[in-house]
Specification:
heterodimer, A: mainly alpha, Sufe protein. Chain: A, 3-stranded antiparallel β-sheet, 6 helices, globular, B: alpha/beta, Oxidized Rhodanese, domain 1, 2 domains, 5-stranded parallel β-sheet, 12 strands, disordered N terminus
Chain lengths: 145, 293
C-alpha cells in the first residue's frame, strides 16, 4: 500500500518501534499535538453528519477538498478521555498534509494497526477505522458533487 | 416472583454494606492508605501512561487478564503472579477505576471476582469524575514490593456463564440482558466493515434477551452510577427483572456486560447474575443455535 510521502514517513517510523512502551509514549506525544477543528470550518454544535458513528470518543471529521483536489483534514474529539482518537487524528493531520483525493482513496484501514499495533481492542479499532472511512466517504461525496 | 425494593434506604444500605463503590472524596483521603491498591483499567490504551491517580497500577484486559493463546482468562498461578507483581495481597482492598464509565474497570473487577478476591470496589465516576474534579494525578509508574498472593482456583460457576449454560437457560426461559447497542441487538450492525473475522456471522440476539444498553446505568456527565432508585426503576420495574431469579448478561465479548453484572449484583443486590463472556462473538458464530432479530 503506497501512502502519501508524509504519511508513509510516519508509518515507517512506527514500524521501527519494537517495544510497546515506546509506541505508547510516541502516541501520547502525538495526542498533545492534536489541533482541533477551527471555527472557520465548524462550530458547536457540530453537524451530526460529520460524527464518526463507530467511535466511542465522540469524534467529528471534516475532509475539505479544494479546487486543486487537495484534501485538508479537520477533527474534533469531544470525549476528554479520547486520547487515542486525538493521537490518531494528529497522525492523520501530519501524514495527510497536502494529500490529494487520490491519496485519500488509497487509505487503508490497516493503517490503524500500523500505528497502534496489533494489541488494539476491537472497539478501539472500530472507532479509529471509522475515522478513515469517514474521511474517504466525505472525499468521495465531494467528488460526486 | 417480581419484587421491588420499596424502601430505597434499604438499597442504599445494601450498597454501603457491600462497599462496592467508593467516592472520589474517600479515595483521595485514602491515597496513602497501605491497605488499598488502586488499579486503573481502560479501554483507551494511552490514558494510564499519560497520567493516572497517584500510586495507581495498570491492568490491561488483553495482556494482563487473558490467556495469550486460548480464549480464556488467567489460571490460578497466573492470577497469583499478577497480584504479586501489582503489590496486591489477599487482604488488600483493591479499588478499580477507568475510562468510559468504568466499563473496563468493571470487567477487571469481574475477573478478580472469579478468583474470589474479597475486598474490591469501583471508584464511582471512574477516571472522568476524578479528572473533572482536578484531583491529583501523575505519570509516575509506581513500583511495589512483590507480595505473596495465594489464589484460589478460578470459579467459573457462580459468576460466569458458558454457551451450554446459556442454551439451558434459554430453554428454561430464563432472564437474559443483552447490553449492546440497539443496532447490535436488532442485527442491523454486525461487525467492523473490513474486519469480518472480528465480528459474527449472524446478527441479532439470543431469543428472550432484553436489550438494556450498558451505559443506561451511568450518568453521562460524570460517569457515576445512577442512583439505586433510578436503577431499580430501569431493571426491576421497567424490565421486570426478578431479583431472585437467575439472570445472564452478555454483550460482544463480555466486557460491557460485566458493567451490568456489577450493577445487578452489587448495587441492586440481585442474587444470581452470571456474565456470558463468550457473548455475541461466540453465539453469533455458533452453528445451530437459535437467533432472534
Amino acid at each position: 500500500m503506497a501512502y502519501p510521502e508524509n504519511l508513509q514517513r510516519v508509518v515507517d517510523y512506527f514500524a521501527r518501534i519494537t517495544d510497546n512502551q515506546t509506541r505508547i509514549q510516541t502516541l501520547i506525544s502525538y495526542s498533545k499535538r492534536f489541533v482541533e477543528v477551527t471555527e472557520d470550518v465548524a462550530v458547536r454544535p457540530f453537524d451530526q453528519r460529520h460524527r464518526v458513528p463507530e467511535c466511542e470518543s465522540d469524534v467529528y471529521v471534516w475532509a475539505i477538498v479544494d479546487d486543486n483536489q487537495n484534501v485538508t483534514i479537520h477533527t474534533a474529539v469531544e470525549n476528554p478521555e479520547g486520547l487515542s482518537a486525538k493521537a490518531f487524528a494528529a497522525v492523520l493531520q501530519k501524514g495527510l498534509k497536502d494529500a490529494t483525493v487520490d491519496d485519500i482513496e488509497k487509505l487503508d484501514t490497516e493503517l490503524v494497526y500500523s500505528i497502534f499495533g496489533k494489541q488494539l481492542s476491537m472497539g478501539k479499532n472500530m472507532g479509529l477505522t471509522g475515522m478513515i472511512q469517514m474521511i474517504k466517504a466525505q472525499t468521495r461525496q465531494h467528488l460526486a458533487g | 416472583m417480581y419484587s421491588v425494593v420499596t424502601n430505597i434506604s434499604q438499597t442504599y444500605q445494601i450498597r454501603k454494606m457491600k462497599n462496592a463503590l467508593v467516592t472520589t472524596d474517600w479515595l483521595q483521603a485514602n491515597l496513602k492508605n497501605p491497605e488499598i491498591r488502586i488499579v486503573e483499567s481502560n479501554e483507551d490504551p494511552l490514558l494510564y501512561f499519560d497520567k493516572h491517580i497517584e500510586g495507581a497500577v495498570h491492568i490491561d484486559w488483553t495482556s494482563d487478564l487473558n490467556d495469550p493463546l486460548r480464549r480464556d482468562y488467567l489460571n490460578r498461578e497466573e492470577f497469583a503472579k499478577l497480584c504479586s507483581q501489582k503489590g496486591i495481597t489477599n487482604e488488600t482492598h483493591v479499588i478499580f477505576y477507568g475510562d468510559k464509565n468504568n466499563w473496563w474497570a468493571a470487567y477487571a473487577f469481574w475477573v478478580f471476582e472469579l478468583f474470589g478476591h474479597k475486598k474490591m470496589s469501583l471508584l464511582d465516576g471512574g477516571r472522568l469524575k476524578w479528572t473533572t474534579e482536578n484531583r491529583p494525578m501523575n505519570d509516575v509508574i509506581p513500583e511495589y514490593e512483590y507480595t505473596t498472593y495465594t489464589a484460589q482456583e478460578r470459579d467459573d460457576v457462580r459468576n460466569r456463564a458458558f454457551r451450554d449454560d446459556v442454551l439451558k437457560h434459554l430453554n428454561q426461559k430464563g432472564a437474559m440482558v443483552d447490553v449492546r447497542s440497539p443496532e447490535e441487538f436488532s442485527g442491523e450492525r454486525l461487525h467492523i466493515p473490513g474486519y469480518p473475522n472480528e465480528g459474527a456471522l449472524r446478527g441479532g440476539h439470543i431469543p428472550g434477551a432484553q436489550n438494556i444498553p450498558w451505559a443506561t446505568a451511568a450518568n453521562p456527565e460524570n460517569g457515576t452510577f445512577k442512583s439505586p432508585e433510578e436503577l431499580e426503576l430501569i431493571y426491576a420495574k421497567d424490565k421486570q427483572l426478578d431479583r431472585n431469579s437467575e439472570i445472564i448478561t452478555y454483550c460482544r465479548i463480555g466486557e460491557r456486560s460485566a458493567h451490568t453484572w456489577f450493577v445487578l449484583k452489587y448495587i441492586l443486590d440481585y442474587k444470581n447474575v452470571r456474565n456470558y463472556d463468550g457473548s455475541w462473538t461466540e453465539w453469533g458464530n455458533l452453528v445451530g443455535v437459535p437467533v432472534e432479530k
